[in-house]
Specification:
The complex is a heterodimer of chains A (246) and B (427). With 246 residues, chain A is α/β, with parallel strands linked by helices. In chain A, 31% of the residues lie in helices and 26% in strands. In chain B, a hairpin with a 2-residue loop joins strand 2 (69-70) and strand 3 (73-74). Classes of the chains: A alpha/beta (246), B alpha+beta (427). At the A-B interface, helix 2 and helix 3 of A face helix 1, helix 11, helix 12 and helix 14 of B.
Chain lengths: 246, 427
């Protein structure tokens, strides 16, 4: 049996709002993500998908259950250990891009290497990652000089840099027009084609239709978990190849 | 995270907020400049005081009369009359080559002086022949009186340079005659009325070199006469001196000389218990030590005033770092998401604060140096030697860096403790 990238067993998470009210965001989630999967997590607001995403990304720690990420049990790790895990195993892509406005594209991409991994050849690797997302000619642009789609591509390049076990994308197309969305999805699909594991949180069925597997959340539990028979190819929706426009 | 990256990142964020960084730094700049300038003025003042003391002659041991104590009670009233010129001669004889010279002095009070139609009022002192050696103060023209002048109570005088100019103007005073009359109500002593009526002629032997003033006393305005002349002709207080001054061979031998003099005088005055001595021996080292403790306190006070402004500057740093941490909450979240540990974030903000204060410190030193240069050009302070020592500079930089650490620590810790999710959600 192929080892899972992600193995969640009975994950629970409770938030306390004020003194009295508690919210059971996750109520015992079991989930396996295998290598080279392209998984969409869907669900209405309050279904717990954001919490699940945070737990998956090791930004937050579950109250109960076990979480094994790339063979490593990350249940009760310290903050600093979690930071190392994020650095090594998780590449984040956020809805709002979350680039540092002071830094130019290549400096933003280099960021994970500042905090860990191989420090040698930092610049070369950042350049390679930017070329992979079709931004090899924009490396010295600041985020404010780039379009939304381009900024998200810089963010993807940053996520790729430490060769993580999983790319975790939170509504990556939420702020983009349909053409830029298609471009971003095309990049994810291409990365998935070469063996990258991608987990994407979305509430748009159109976007989820590009994934190989869709998990639907409801009330802190996984309600449906199904494979997509024929995922749509984002490249087909673009008249021009990716990376040629912005 | 390597230090190089932290430094780069810190400098980048300082450059992005140029105006804010500059204003924040200004607090530290002013603080450091104040410390540098104030301490250099303080150091200069103590140096100036020291120079003044040494201006009186160097390596001096001074004996002054003191009322004897009896069972812990010290007689009150006028200065005791316990020292004689024989005490001085005895010291001279017994110490011989172990000292450079010794002299005795008697103040003869203020006198009205006339010469060539000019009128002047000044102090007259009787001194012995080695005065120029002891005081490092020779004559500019003419000569000083000799032992033979003392032996015959010669009515000869050596003038201070100011006195000479006031009495004779451009004329060379050497060989001229001056007339002394006791100023009205001054001097005192028995037979004062008779002396007042008398005009005493003195021949000018020489004029002293220019010495300047000591503690506000203009030392160039005085007349020196042989001690014996002062005793027999001016005051009538025979064989009595106000102080004996001994010049030791060096600063190191001063203490030995002091105890030698003490022993000689105790023996001569037939006093068994040193505590009830009728004289006091002080040496210049003691005086310098006492004064340097005063000026040291003065310097410390000035430094403290500068230090307070440095403290205020440090609080400014803390304030701006807190604002900066708040503003960059999202950045902290992003950095944490891509793997920054607490220590990485802590270092980043700490280095930023230290860079601010360190740079401020360097600029402050330059500014402080500039201030002392300006102070130096103010006429009233021109004589004040201003000293910026390497110690001051090292302390100022060290303190400003320490302030960066101390006042940057709390904001940096707040940044490091932020939870990544909350930081990322922060708008």
């Amino acid at each position: 049996m192929i080892q899972s990238v992600v193995q969640l067993r009975g994950i629970t998470k409770t938030y306390r709002i004020g003194r009295e009210i508690t919210v059971n965001a996750l109520r015992g989630v079991d989930l396996d993500v295998r290598p080279a999967e392209f998984l969409a997590i869907m669900g209405p607001s309050g279904s717990g998908k954001s919490t699940l995403m945070n737990v998956l990304g090791c930004l937050d720690v579950a109250d109960g259950g076990t979480y094994v990420l790339a063979g490593e049990n990350v249940n009760k790790l310290s903050d600093d250990k979690l930071a190392s895990i994020r650095n090594k195993h998780v590449g984040f892509v956020f809805q709002t891009y979350n680039l540092l406005s002071r830094l130019n594209a290549i400096e933003n991409v280099e960021l994970p290497l500042i905090y860990g991994g191989d420090r040698r050849a930092r610049r070369e690797r950042a350049l390679a990652a930017l070329e992979q997302v079709g931004l090899g000619d924009r490396i010295h642009h600041r985020p404010s000089e780039l379009s939304g789609g381009q900024q998200q591509r810089v963010a993807i390049a940053r996520a790729l840099l430490n060769d993580p076990s999983m790319i975790l994308a939170d509504e990556p197309t939420g702020n983009l027009d349909s053409r830029s969305s298609a471009e971003i999805l095309a990049i994810f699909q291409r990365l998935n084609d070469i063996g990258k594991t991608v987990v994407m949180v979305t509430h748009e069925p159109d976007v989820a239709a590009h994934c190989k597997r869709v998990v639907r959340m409801r009330d802190g539990l996984i309600a449906h978990d199904e494979l997509v028979p024929n995922p749509r190819r984002a490249e087909d929706e673009l008249t021009v190849g990716i990376g040629a426009s912005g | 995270m390597k230090l190089y990256d932290s430094f780069r990142s810190a400098l980048q964020s300082l450059v992005v907020n140029k105006l804010r960084s500059a204003l924040t730094m200004l607090g530290v700049i002013i603080g450091v400049a104040a410390v540098i300038a104030m301490v250099s003025v303080g150091n200069g003042a103590s140096q100036s005081v020291q120079n003044t003391i040494l201006n009186l002659g160097s390596n001096l041991v001074t004996v002054t009369p003191q009322n004897a104590t009896d069972q812990g009670l010290r007689g009150a009233g006028a200065q005791a009359q316990s020292l004689t010129v024989d005490d001085m001669r005895s010291i001279q004889e017994q110490l011989g080559d172990t000292i450079i010279a010794a002299e005795a002095e008697q103040q003869a009070g203020r006198w009205q002086v006339t010469a060539a139609g000019q009128n002047w009022n000044t102090t007259v002192s009787g001194v012995t022949e080695d005065y120029p050696i002891v005081r490092d103060w020779g004559v500019d023209s003419g000569e000083f009186f000799s032992t033979s002048d003392l032996n015959v109570n010669a009515q000869v005088a050596v003038l201070g340079s100011t006195t000479a100019v006031n009495l004779f103007g451009d004329v060379d005073p050497v060989g001229q005659t001056i007339q002394l009359r006791q100023a009205f109500g001054g001097g005192g002593g028995q037979g004062a009325a008779a002396q007042r009526a008398r005009i005493l002629n003195f021949r000018v032997l020489g004029v002293l070199g220019v010495k300047g003033s000591t503690f506000g006393q203009i030392r160039d305005d005085q007349i020196l006469v042989p001690l014996t002349t002062a005793q027999h002709v001016l005051t009538g207080q025979l064989n009595r001196v106000n102080q004996i001054v001994i010049k030791a061979t060096s600063s190191e031998t001063m203490d030995i000389t002091t105890s030698d003099v003490n022993n000689i005088l105790l023996q001569r005055h037939d006093i068994a218990d040193p505590a009830s001595a009728d004289f006091a021996v002080t040496n210049q080292n003691d005086t310098l030590a006492a004064l340097s403790s005063v000026t040291g306190t003065f310097t410390l006070l000035l430094g403290a005033i500068g230090g307070i402004s440095l403290l205020v500057g440090g609080i400014g740093i803390m304030n701006i770092m807190l604002v900066s941490v708040n503003e960059r909450t999202r950045e902290i979240g992003i950095r944490k998401a891509v793997g920054a540990r607490r220590a990485d974030i802590l270092n980043q903000f700490l280095i930023e604060a230290v860079a601010l204060t360190g740079l401020g410190g360097v600029i402050g030193i330059l500014l402080g140096w500039a201030i002392t240069e300006v102070v130096h050009r103010i006429p009233q302070a021109a004589s004040l030697p201003l000293l910026i020592t390497s110690g001051t500079v090292i302390i100022a930089v060290g303190v400003s860096v320490a302030i960066g650490v101390v006042f940057g620590l709390y904001p940096a810790m707040r940044a490091a403790r932020l939870h990544p999710i909350q930081a990322l959600r922060y708008e």
